[in-house]
Amino acid sequence: MPPSIGIVEDPPLGCSGPLWVRGEITIESEDGTHYEKRNRVTLCRCGASSNKPFCNGSHASIKFNDGILK
Ligand code: FES
Question: Residue with the nearest Cα to atom 2 of ligand 1?
Answer without folding.
Answer: 55
